[in-house]
Structure formats: structure tokens, C-alpha cells
Amino acid sequence: MNSAYYKTGLTGGTENDLDGISVYNLADGDIAAVFNSNIARFYVLDIDSGETADDITIIEPATDPGDVRWIEQISTREQVGVFAHLTAAADTTVTTASTYYAIEGTFNNSISEYFTAVEGPPPGIQADYPTTQYYKIEWATSLQSEDATRTCTVGIAKNGTTPETCSLISALLKTADEPVALCGCCVLELEKDDVVTLVLTSSSDGDVITVNNFQTNVKAFF
Fold first, then answer.
1. Given phi > 0 = left and psi -120 to 50 = alpha, else beta, which region is 184?
2. Average pLDDT over residues 128-144
3. Peptide bond preceding 61 in cis form (omega within 30 of 0)
4. Residues contacting residue 174 through CB under 8 Å, at least 6 positions apart
5. 0.70 exceeded by the pTM?
6. Average pLDDT score over residue span 47-59
7. Does the domain formed by 81-220 have CATH 3.40.309.10?
8. Of 85, 129, 163, 221, which residue is least crowded by CB atoms under 10 Å?
9. pLDDT above 50 (res 76)
10. Average pLDDT of the residues of the chain
11. Neighbour count for residue 100 (Cβ, 10 Å)
């Protein structure tokens, strides 16, 4: 039978800290709850993890840790996700029709937890949480084409620019330079270091699509 522990600190090596529990008293699958500064975190012990400790999501015992790590459980943590938005309108050129390109422009990703902006190529947001997890990705945009009668498709790609089929939404840009609103949602499984990229394509070679604004929200699904 596995043991359960209650602590009030994460690191420090004291009897009140998670990293203060002796590895010689632990077994694979032990669980722990840490209540500190009105935040509750829950962990499961992995005796052969060997992951690099970061003192929050991965806790290494203070003495003789070896590969033993406490791994925080995402299912009990609500603040995992990111909100990003395009700071100014930007053009994306579709050099080859039906080929997907990362949406150009500067994105603000300041509201985030366990996600980091990466420059690429392709640019995107990188998942930093150590546990593989499903995420719900919602997005909304206003865009336009400099040419009339163009079909534009927007989607979400993982680790490249090939979009996930579940994320694709298309619209006919019937009139040149007339903004059209689009929104979409998909659920993707992301593991640590996966990069999510916003992509689009159009129906003719050389189309220039102006993205006036773009907001996206990524959050843990289950």
C-alpha cells in the first residue's frame, strides 16, 4: 500500500518540506499534498523519473535523490494555460496555394502559466508542463484578402505547420479588403516541449492575407 504525505513547503529540506522526506521511506506511486500560501499542489512519486527538478512541478529529494522525483499532477492544477493576442495587423503571404504558413506578426503571450513563446521557425507557444495532457485551444480572428473571391482556411499546427484536421475553419473572402470573422476550437494532446503554431492558407498562389486581430486561449482540458 502506498503512503500519503501532507506538507506545507516544497523545498528546504526540513521535515515540513516535500523534499525533506527521506528517499529510504518512499515507494513508487506515493502521493503528497502541499498547502502553501493558499495554493494546494498534489504530487505522485516516480522513483526512476530522473527529470530535471524545477522546485515546483518536479521536486527532487534534498538528500540522495538519485532518479527519485515528485511529479506535480496537472489534473489538480487549474492555472495551466496561455492567452495570446496579435498586437497589430500583419500580412501573411501564401506563396503556394493550399500550403499552410505560420501567421505573421507579433503576439503578446504575457498571460501564461507553463507556456513559453518561441521564435521558431515556425513561431509558436511551447508547452513547458512535464506531464502529457489534453488541452482545449480556442481562437478568434478577423482577416481579409487584397484580392476578391479567395477561400482562406485557418488552423492549429503542432510541431510544424501541418494543421490538425480538427482545428480547420474556412471562409470565402468574397470582397477584396473586406474583413471576415472566423473562430474555432480543437482539443490536442501536448507533451513537454511541443510547440503550437497558428497557421493559414488560401486558394491562390501569392495571396496576401491580412490578419487584423487574433486571440487564442489554451487551457487544460483533462
1. beta
2. 90
3. no
4. 148, 149
5. no
6. 92
7. no
8. 221
9. no
10. 91
11. 22
> Using CA atoms, how far apart are residues 86 and 217, in angstroms rounded to an integer?
12
The pLDDT of 158-165, averaged and rounded, is: 94
CB 198 within 8 A of CB 188: no
In this predicted structure, the answer to whether residue 46 has a pLDDT above a threshold of 60 is yes
Has residue 195 got a pLDDT over 60? Answer: yes
pLDDT in the model for residue 119? 84
Check residue 163 and give its pLDDT.
95
Residue type, 80: V
Give me the residue spans of the domains in the chain.
Answer: 4-72, 81-220
For every residue of the chain, DSSP letters joined together read: ---EEEESBSSSSSTTBGGGS-GGG--TT-EEEEEETTEEEEEEEETT--PPP-SSSEE--SSS-TT-EEEE-GGG----EEEEEESS-EEEEESSTT--EEPPS-EEEEEEESEEEE--SSPEEEE--SS-EEEEEEEEEEEEESSSSEEEEEEEEESSSPBPGGG-EEEEE-STT--EEEEEEEEEEE-TT-EEEEEEEESSTTEEEEEEEEEEEEEE--
67: pLDDT strictly greater than 70: yes
